[in-house]
Design brief:
By secondary structure, the chain is α+β, with helices and mostly antiparallel strands. The protein has helices at 76-85, 91-96, 155-160, 163-170, 173-176, and strands at residues 13-29, 35-51, 58-68, 106-115, 121-129, 145-147. 18% of the residues lie in helices and 35% in strands.
């Protein structure tokens, strides 16, 4: 992406969306709250398309957000899980829930606009809720994938990620062990 180029952003509002990417970012220092094991969820909006690059034609808007990899009852990730599965998990179910099972699931995403420190306006995920009865999410457009450090590492998929995401991941301890068969105690996450 070239410096200063302005891209169209998704208008604020509520849209049907599909979770098409789950990326285990690793343990990232989150500032005042210390290091947190983090997952990045990316949603495509198949009803909302634009041409970002002429050579690719029309593509759906995509928004992603990082979450602490926690299914605690008050965690933001657990709220997203509830929206995607259409039900509330018990604490016992949440303990054993595999976030990667969410790939391809649909929900309603509320998009909000926020101003960045640079003065630009950005579209962000404000809320996720269950897709309302009778509302459908069109067929997927982007290839869905999961990228984690253990059994689902893929260098080709990693290379397709934006540089800022790759940099964050490369700064983690988990990145050093990507794709290797190691004992859980060998990696600090």
């Amino acid at each position: 992406m070239s410096e200063g180029k302005e891209f169209e952003i998704l208008a604020s509002g509520a849209y049907p969306a599909r979770l098409y990417q789950i990326i285990h970012m690793g343990v990232i220092d989150s500032g005042q709250y210390g290091p947190k094991d983090t997952v990045r969820l990316a949603f495509e909006f198949p009803t909302e398309k634009t041409t970002f690059k002429e050579e690719n034609g029309e593509q759906p808007f995509v928004l992603s957000q990082e979450y602490t990899l926690s299914t605690h009852e008050k965690s933001n990730l657990r709220k997203v899980i509830h929206a995607l599965i259409g039900a509330e998990l018990t604490d016992q179910e949440a303990e054993s829930f595999d976030v990667e099972d969410l790939i391809g699931k649909e929900c309603l995403v509320t998009v909000v606009h926020n101003e960045g420190k640079n003065g630009k306006t950005y579209a962000n995920i404000g809320n996720t809720t269950v897709l309302p009865k009778g509302m459908e999410c069109p067929a997927p457009i982007n290839e869905a994938f999961v990228l984690n450090y253990r059994e689902k590492w893929d260098d080709i998929k990693f290379a397709t990620l934006p540089d800022f995401i790759k940099s964050k991941m490369q700064a983690t301890e988990q990145f050093k062990f990507k794709g290797e068969e190691v004992q859980p105690d060998d990696i600090p996450f």
